[in-house]
Amino acid sequence: MTGGTPAVEVRGLAFAYPDGRQALYGVDLVVQPGERVALLGPNGAGKTTLVLHLNGILGPVSGGTGTGTVRIAGLELTREHLTAVRQRVGLVFQDPDDQLFMPTVRDDVAFGPANAGLRGDELDARVREALERVGMLEHADRPPHHLSFGQRRRVAVATVLAMRPDVLVLDEPSSNLDPASRRELADILTGLDVTVLMVTHDLPYALQLCPRSVLLDDGRVVADGPTRDLLADRRLMSAHRLELPYGFDPLSVPGAQA
After folding, report:
1. Averaged over 109-125, what is the pLDDT?
2. What is the pLDDT of residues 121-173, one digit of tens each?
3. pTM: predicted TM-score of the whole model, two decimal places
4. How far apart are CA 209 and CA 190, in angstroms?
5. DSSP designation for 194
6. How far, in Å, CA of 105 to CA of 2, rounded?
7. Which residue in 50, 60, 49 sits closest to 9, CA to CA?
8. Distance between CA atoms of residues 146 and 58, nearest Å
9. Tens of pLDDT along 61-103?
């Protein structure tokens, strides 16, 4: 997908943590509206550090150090634009319990829009819409801690969708899910009309959901292309400590984009 204003545009992004550890070295990344892109790489590659820059959790606007620019839908991430950018980029963390803290599912999903000023029927409609998109409307009045892990992850996604973001960032969305929950979440994510950026070590899940993958290692982008091509490149995979499940052949998967 080319042309128009990118949904995400990162140029020359470098970042070091306070202890001096350099996490990113001049990263460039462009994601077009509607793309689903997987961020792959070994532990410590800089994947999570990169996505936490997309809404200012890390970086100069949050008091950190670094260089480079981040633009979301053409809007540069600066202190002046921080609130607007955070409304456009929704992050779903690896542990749903990091996002669910209210007495009921409904309260959790309403929290963000209510803080943004929505009230009454408009707020109720926003909550209903988000819960319907993840198939959790019937659980709206249940305490989140009474739900299964997979259900809590879907509610965590709903809390972000309720803000109607342009970009949805997911950190290890398939971790700790049983096969049925994994499939249900995949069905939800493929049906969303938002740009998706997914950090994952689950390489078959990346192939299933993301036509394109970007491989990071040691804070640098080392490969960017069709997911199937990257996963089928044994030399590339070995060089960056990525391994497919035993017997899994990405070239044999029906519908995987070459």
Report:
1. 95
2. 999 999 999 999 999 999 999 999 999 999 999 999 999 999 999 999 999 99
3. 0.91
4. 7
5. S
6. 38
7. 50
8. 33
9. 776 677 899 999 999 999 999 999 999 999 999 999 999 999 9
- For the purposes of burial, counting CB atoms within 10 Å of the CB of 145, is it exposed (0-12), middle (13-18) or buried (19 or more)? exposed
Q: Give the pair of three-digit tokens for residue 218.
A: 């040691």
Domain 8-244 classification at class level:
alpha beta
Six-digit token string for 92: 């779903």
**Contact between residue 167 and residue 85 where contact means Cβ atoms under 8 Å apart:** no
Q: Do residues 104 and 142 lie in contact, with contact meaning Cβ atoms separated by under 8 Å?
A: yes
| Whole-number Å distance between alpha carbons of 53 and 85 | 11
SS3 206: helix
Print burial letters for 104-134: b (CB count within 10 Å at least 16), e (below 16).
ebbbbbbbbbeeeebeeeebeebbeebbebb
Give the number of other CB atoms < 10 A from CB of residue 90.
Answer: 23
Tokens for 233? 């490149």
Whats the size of the chain, residue-wise? 258
Q: Which of 204, 168, 244, 196 is nearest to 1 (CA)?
A: 196
Nearest-angstrom CA–CA distance, 207 and 194: 18
User: Who contacts 147 (Cβ-Cβ below 8 Å, separation ≥6)?
Assistant: 105, 139, 155
